[in-house]
């Protein structure tokens, strides 16, 4: 089981230019390793294609261009099927958005009104090492927030989750698990859902999202899903799994990439709080999205 420091997931010190910026603005050795993993997997033709795309990107400020490593281009080009034009447009849109939104500079204190509602949090890694972003949908109340704040929170989620992926060896995606228990029409927020989906899908190219699981589904699920469905990319729609019973979450299996042919259950009850049918007893944080019992070293970052 992967749960932060105790799982053997190690973090490093500062590194070289090919790494990706961490949430604190520093650089981490695991980010360097991630970039090196990508470099090693590329053919000479793919490296040339990536170099050509980078050469066509309009100049941006230095702090933005640091986001344009080969790893960054690789995650966008694979999402766009190695199509140069689509990748160039997607990357340009991403860099322009990032320059304006600056999710790396969003401090938890500035979105505390969202954090204290415990809408979303990172509490564990699954049995294949992927970070798990857990969402409690009923905790979103449109009257208690604004669309601007929701988008800021979405950017913070994206930045934090992406950095957790980058800093975890051998992992290139995350899982999203959504509890719809108690979710009602008063929680529906079509405007924020549309804008939030756009940010997360464009900032998180589809291949960085492993799978989506919805549990505790309400009786009007089809109505709710149909209201959000138009905003989702086809690639994202195919990743969504609606589970009839909460306990079904713990029967989900995948092939172990390190042991082809061997199936493993990707989730365990100790990874989740009772909301998701789990046995974890950790407290949800009010000042972060990281559950500090699972990620104790992160508590120091936002102290």
Main sheet: strand order = 1-2-3-4-5
Order of helices and strands: HHHHHHEEHEHEHHEEE
Task: State the helix count.
Answer: 10
What's the end-to-end separation, in Å?
Answer: 27 Å
Rg, please? 19 Å
Major sheet size, sense and barrel closure: 5 strands, mixed
Percent strand equals: 5-15%
Quick check: average pLDDT? Answer: 82
Sum up the overall morphology in one term: globular
Helix content: 25-40%
Q: Pairing-aware structural class of the strands and helices? A: alpha/beta
Looking at this protein, list some descriptive labels.
alpha/beta, disordered N terminus, globular, five-stranded mixed beta sheet, single chain, 303 residues
Report on this model:
The protein is α/β, with parallel strands linked by helices and 303 residues long. It is 36% helix and 11% strand. The chain has a 5-stranded mixed beta sheet, with helices on one face. It has a two-stranded antiparallel sheet with strand order 6-7. Helix 2 packs across helix 4 (70-79) and helix 7 (147-166) runs parallel beside helix 8. The longest helix has 20 residues, at 147-166. It is globular.
Helix/strand layout:
Blueprint lengths: L28 H13 L2 H13 L5 H4 L4 H10 L4 H18 L10 H4 L4 E6 L5 E6 L10 H20 L7 E6 L10 H14 L5 E7 L5 H8 L5 H4 L2 E3 L10 E3 L7 E3 L38
Parallel strand pairs: 2-3, 3-4, 4-5
Antiparallel strand pairs: 1-2, 6-7
Helix pairs in contact: 2-4, 4-5, 7-8
């Amino acid at each position: 089981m992967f749960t932060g420091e105790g799982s053997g997931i190690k973090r490093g010190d500062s590194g070289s230019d090919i790494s990706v910026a961490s949430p604190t603005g520093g650089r981490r050795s695991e980010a360097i390793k991630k970039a090196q993993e990508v470099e090693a997997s590329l053919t000479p033709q793919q490296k040339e294609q990536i170099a050509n795309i980078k050469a066509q990107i309009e100049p941006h400020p230095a702090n933005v261009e640091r986001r344009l490593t080969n790893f960054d281009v690789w995650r966008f080009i694979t999402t766009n099927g190695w199509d140069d034009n689509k990748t160039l447009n997607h990357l340009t849109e991403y860099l322009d958005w990032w320059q304006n939104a600056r999710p790396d500079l969003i401090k938890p204190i500035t979105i505390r009104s969202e954090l204290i509602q415990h809408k979303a949090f990172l509490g564990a890694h699954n049995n294949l090492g992927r970070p798990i972003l857990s969402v409690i949908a009923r905790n979103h109340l449109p009257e208690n927030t604004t669309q601007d704040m929701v988008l800021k929170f979405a950017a913070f989620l994206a930045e934090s989750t992406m950095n957790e992926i980058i800093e975890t060896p051998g992992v290139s995606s995350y899982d999203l698990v959504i509890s719809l228990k108690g979710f009602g029409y008063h929680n529906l927020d079509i405007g924020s859902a549309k804008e939030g989906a756009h940010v997360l899908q464009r900032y998180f190219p589809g291949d960085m999202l492993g799978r989506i699981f919805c549990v505790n589904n309400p009786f009007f699920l089809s109505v709710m899903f149909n209201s959000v469905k138009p905003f989702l990319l086809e690639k994202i729609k195919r990743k969504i799994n609606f589970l009839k019973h909460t306990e079904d979450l713990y029967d989900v299996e995948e092939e172990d990439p390190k042991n082809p042919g061997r199936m493993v259950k990707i989730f365990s009850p100790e990874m989740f709080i009772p909301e998701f049918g789990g046995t974890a007893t950790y407290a949800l944080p009010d000042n972060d999205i990281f559950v500090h019992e699972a990620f104790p070293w992160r508590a120091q970052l936002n102290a």
